[in-house]
Amino acid sequence: MEEVKILELTERCIKYFKEHCYTESRISRYKSLWRNGIVRYMSQRDIESYSPAVGADFVQTCHFNGTIRPQEREKIRSVQVLDDLMTLGCVRKRCFTPVFHALDGEIGADMEKFVSHMAKLRRAKSTIGSYRLYLSDFLAHLGNRGVVHTADISESDILTFVSSHPSDKVNIVSALRVLFRFWKEERITDSRFDELFDTYKTHRKERIPSFFTSGEIMRIENSISRSSGVGKRNYAMVLLASRLGLRASDIAGLRFSDIDWDRNTITIIMQKTGKMIELPLLADVGNAIIDYLRHGRRNSPLQNVFISERAPYVAATPEMVSNAIRAIVIQSGVDTSSRHHGPHSLRHSLASAMLDGGTMIPVISESLGHRSTQTTLTYLKIDIRSLLKCSLPVPAVSDSFYMQRGGAFYG
Questions:
Q1: Can you give the pTM of this predicted structure?
Q2: How does 83-103 read in b/e, with b if 16+ C-beta sit within 10 Å?
Q3: What would the pLDDT profile of 150-179 be if each residue is shown by its tens digit?
């Protein structure tokens, strides 16, 4: 394992920080953490050269009765920075490792066959991840009931598991229905669960897309202060959602090569559907992006238009876009009670405005990049003005109807 003098390594880190535009206050903070953390630890033990093994030993001393205090957590991060620079030559942005839900045992192996089948069908990673989560919970439930063989699963096992998740019953029943259908086709189980899933009814609440009026959209856009780099970036992201209807994933993934300034178009392959779509680069949107690139974006070789505001600079993520837009909507003062207020609500608002303006469904479908017009029909629920045109008069009911059997039923 490579070793290096600790002071030499910290100097290399400081040089890296300056090259990547870390603020002086942040660099000073790391100096303090090293001085009071790993450097003091090594000095007390007469260790001159640092290695990841030394860092791992130091991290163990940061645990206090099984917990890690905030101050110690920062010291651990300072050691992770040293390890990154030593082994990778760069410093990774702080991230959290997603939990992997293992599917063990005989039943788990049969579940893995189903997960592999979903992957072959090219289901989205997020969809497969949801299936794995539900199956992992179901596997744990079976284990607690002493069920270790797929052939031994009973209706009672399924019903008790579904009943233990009342808030997510619809999704769980749907996942199990698909799982047992696959197992039946693969002859892993027989058809004894067909009647259960055919008769088990779950009621999904009717969803009406959240949207804002044109006046509310203007209020949201105008509430953004563009005096800082963050404000310029967030303003451009909001306009991409409100004026062009882009999803958070597509805003985050927007690259310089996607923008044709000569033709004033944006051409992207949508993250969710894989469909290529060409949109007009509206003047307000283009000007907002230019303002951000000239006066707000940090110097970075990244080809993504939107990047983080703090070093080390990384490409924007869908979560970053969603959180920024959600905070802007709340701070604008627009009433968000009983309404979602992320980037998708701005997308819905654009669809509502297009419907209100008389735009045909196929045109809206193409503009939003939907796979089919059936998806776009969801937005008819929010087009109240057009729905009122389809209303029929309610015929009058004669008094004789209410006076049946002396009015006993309607008195």
A1: 0.58
A2: bbbbeeeebeeeeeeeeeeeb
A3: 999 999 999 999 888 877 788 899 999 999
